[in-house]
């Protein structure tokens, strides 16, 4: 089923002039006229025949000849590994499951055992290369997509570094080697071996082991400090704390077990909050801080399945190894698995003498205690700062938009632009993730949705009395067409963000002076994404969300369904410019006006 992989085309390097023209077009209406004039001159100099641009382009083309994907390493470093911000809220997206109704601890553990069984099934599909290949849907549907990201779901670890993190990958194998997951419970970490004597534990075994873990976690005298909090800190701080931690061999062994595990299962305490969609999203994004389940996490691991005693469940995902779409596929498999294969707890026989799960030990020096206090404080600030609003817009869904012969994604993007304009009176550089998995090792590029055509439309809508409905309709069509065209450029590898990044990074690699194009303020503005958006559609009842990527920005994740659209809007309370509630309320109005 993976036979397409080697045959997938390589990501092309777009023509230089096309990217430079597009860059100017994307920024012309978002910056003051004087600044634009200056930028235009800089870009023209860069792109002149025999100039720096041509030279770097040639080098980039050479790079593309001997790499499966010329942008992958540059992109991974820029997007994730060199980003120093804390992973929760700032980087790690989450999937929020429907609220579960657990009536007892054993109910919760039964759910956990069932889910872990599903994880093991899914992992064996990945290892056996037996997952059905994904195919592109929507625009330019039907092409097979690169499956590489799936191999990293249970085998990666993001190691913090002083200047840059490292994405460590373990080799995965088909043989049932000793394998373990880490169970977090009451801020303690336990090793749960899931393959013992070459045999995978069945659900009853898993349940037995989880019960033992629960009992061990209850012993108050044995509780150790909430070391997981350190992983919620910014990356440089966590790297520093880790370098102190590993001086002790006990800590080294514990870290090693976590770094090599398949995934985490976090058995959370009840949060004591009403479990609305918004509150579940918040709890999933940051655990509710130190007083709640903030320490019951290990953010460096790509997959953390959270199972709250109060029914608040979902997945927290370290984003560097794969995209949200892979997270959705895995989560949907698990939910379907749990629905389709009733719990086998009653029938299965448990192994008679399973070795007891082990608690991971930590030696906590006063230095580590100080790091922990600082990490807890910072997480608390993040918790207080996150302003989230999850809203199900029920006015209509993608069916209505399709009936107008418009692309639902383009329409929603234009609606987000309209909303931003209505809230702030201007448009800003916007990021929409576009999958480039049609290419080998493809991840994403950016659709810059704040097009000049979108600006013309939103201005007309704001000026309602002076412009006729027919004119507005015309402008809406033009905006949607521009957005759809950009989408097609992006998914065929012809967008500008990866290309500009490549030109910037190859200059750095060749130790050349930074081209003026990249020290120009317009470039800094162009990559400060005040509006960071992403379509993450699901077929099961769940939703994805994430935080803003800049202090004065919004994160806007949407999940279009047939007759409704789920919007998850986030921002930071300490920014005087933003308000998630206002944004969502305005969005409702804008969607209705656009329908009209
Ligand atoms: N008239 C009628 N129907 C139309 C239409 C039109 N003019 N244009 C599109 N449609 C239909 C499509 O055929 C599709 O139908 P389906 O639901 O039966 O599949 C549906 O509308 C959706 O298409 P569209 O809204 O255009 O979006 P898309 O599915 O092509 O998605 C992107 C666009 C950019 C979101 C997508 O290409 C992508 O890259 N997704 C990945 C994003 C990502 O990585 N997110 C996670 C980041 S962590």
Short description:
GO terms for molecular function: choline O-acetyltransferase activity. The chain is of the alpha+beta class and 596 residues long. It has 19 helices and 18 strands.
Descriptive report:
- The structure is a single chain.
- With 596 residues, this protein is an alpha+beta fold.
- It has helices spanning 16-27, 33-47, 52-65, 72-81, 105-127, 203-218, 235-245, 249-259, 277-286, 324-340, 366-385, 398-403, 408-424, 452-462, 469-491, 497-509, 516-519, 521-526, 580-595, and strands at 94-96, 156-159, 166-169, 180-185, 188-193, 195-196, 199-200, 264-268, 303-308, 313-317, 358-359, 386-393, 430-435, 444-447, 531-535, 543-545, 554-560, 565-572.
- The strands form 4 sheets. Strands 11-5-4-8-9-10-1-16 form an 8-stranded mixed β-sheet, with helices on both faces.
- The chain starts with 15 loop residues before the first helix and ends with a helix.
- The model has no long low-confidence stretch (mean pLDDT 95).
- The structure holds coenzyme A.
- Residues 137-139, 323-325, 402, 405-409, 433-435, 444, 487, 491, 534-536 line the site of coenzyme A.
């Amino acid at each position: 089923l993976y036979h397409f992989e080697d045959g997938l085309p390589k990501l092309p390097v777009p023509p230089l002039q096309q990217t430079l023209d597009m860059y100017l077009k994307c920024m012309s209406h978002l910056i003051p006229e004087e600044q634009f004039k200056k930028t235009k001159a800089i870009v023209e100099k860069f792109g002149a025949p025999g100039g720096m641009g041509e030279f770097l382009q040639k080098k980039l083309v050479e790079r593309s000849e001997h790499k499966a994907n010329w942008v992958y390493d540059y992109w991974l470093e820029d997007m994730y590994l060199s980003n120093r911000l804390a992973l929760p809220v700032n980087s790690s997206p989450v999937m929020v499951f429907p609220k579960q109704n657990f009536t007892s601890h054993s109910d919760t553990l039964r759910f956990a055992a069932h889910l872990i069984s599903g994880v093991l099934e899914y992992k064996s599909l990945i290892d056996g290369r037996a997952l059905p290949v994904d195919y592109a849907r929507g625009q330019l549907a039907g092409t097979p997509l690169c499956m590489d990201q799936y191999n990293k779901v249970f085998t990666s670890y993001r190691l913090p570094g002083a200047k840059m993190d490292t994405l460590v990958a373990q080799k995965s194998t088909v043989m049932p080697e000793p394998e373990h997951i880490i169970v977090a419970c009451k801020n303690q970490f336990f090793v749960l071996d899931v393959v013992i004597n070459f045999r995978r534990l069945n659900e009853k075994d898993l349940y037995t082991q989880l019960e033992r873990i629960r009992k061990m976690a209850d012993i108050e005298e044995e509780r150790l400090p909430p070391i997981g909090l350190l992983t919620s800190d910014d990356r440089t701080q966590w790297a520093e704390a880790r370098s102190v931690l590993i001086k002790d061999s006990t800590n080294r062994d514990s870290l090693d077990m976590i770094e090599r595990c398949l995934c985490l299962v976090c058995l959370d305490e009840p949060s004591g909050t009403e479990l609305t969609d918004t509150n579940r999203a918040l709890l999933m994004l940051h655990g509710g801080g130190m007083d709640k389940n903030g320490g019951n996490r290990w953010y460096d691991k790509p997959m953390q399945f959270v199972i709250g005693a109060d029914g608040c469940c979902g997945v927290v995902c370290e984003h560097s190894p794969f995209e949200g779409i892979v997270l959705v596929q895995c989560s949907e498999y698990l939910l379907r698995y749990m629905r389709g294969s009733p719990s086998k707890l009653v029938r299965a026989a448990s192994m008679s003498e399973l070795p007891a799960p082990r608690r991971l030990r930590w030696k906590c020096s006063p230095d580590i205690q100080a790091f922990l206090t600082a990490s807890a404080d910072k997480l608390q600030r993040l918790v207080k700062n996150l302003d989230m609003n999850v809203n199900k817009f029920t006015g209509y869904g993608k069916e209505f938009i399709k009936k107008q012969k418009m692309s639902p994604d383009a329409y929603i993007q234009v609606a987000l632009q309209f909303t931003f304009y209505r809230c702030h009176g201007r448009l800003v550089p916007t990021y929409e993730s576009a999958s480039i998995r049609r290419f080998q090792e493809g991840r994403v590029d950016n659709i810059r949705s704040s097009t000049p055509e979108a600006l013309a439309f939103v201005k007309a809508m704001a000026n309602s009395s002076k412009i006729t409905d027919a004119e507005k309709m015309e402008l809406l069509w033009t905006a949607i067409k521009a957005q759809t065209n950009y989408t097609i450029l992006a998914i065929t590898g012809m967008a500008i963000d990866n290309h500009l990044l490549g030109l910037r990074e190859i200059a750095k690699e060749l130790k050349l002076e930074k081209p003026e194009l990249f020290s120009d303020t317009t470039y800094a503005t162009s990559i400060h994404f005040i509006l960071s958006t992403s379509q993450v559609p699901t077929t099961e009842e769940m939703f994805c969300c994430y935080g803003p990527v800049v202090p004065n920005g919004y994160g806007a994740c949407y999940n279009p369904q047939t007759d409704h659209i789920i919007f998850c809007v986030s921002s930071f309370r300490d920014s005087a410019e933003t308000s998630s509630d206002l944004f969502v309320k305005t969005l409702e109005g804008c969607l209705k006006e656009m329908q009209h």
